[in-house]
Amino acid sequence: MRQGSGFLTVRQRRLAWLGFLLAAAQAPVAARFATDDSWLFSLCVALMVATVIIADDASRRRPANAPSSD
Asked: What distances in angstroms separate CA 20 from CA 1, 2, 41, one per listed residue?
């Protein structure tokens, strides 16, 4: 059984992981030094990027001949 391909290329997937790690690491640093709640924006961005990575991973794990849910 062949694996399905995701909608991200390998390079885009690596950049998404890098963006997730940078945003996730920046949030607690901003929370420490910022007086307002602007660090929540970094947390939201990290969660959105993580959602894209999870969706791509699910797409890759689906068998190639499986019907799509569209």
From this structure: 31, 29, 13
CA-based R_g, the chain, Å: 16
State the Cα–Cα distance between residues 66 and 64, nearest whole angstrom. 6
Distance of CA 58 to the CA centre of its chain: 12
Are the beta carbons of 8 and 16 closer than 8 angstroms?
yes
Do 70 and 15 meet the contact criterion of CB atoms below 8 Å apart?
Answer: no
Instruction: Please answer whether residues 56 and 3 qualify as being in contact, where contact means their C-beta atoms are separated by less than 8 angstroms.
Output: no
Helix, strand or coil for residue 3? strand
Q: What is the pLDDT of residues 14-29, one digit of tens each?
A: 999 999 999 999 989 9
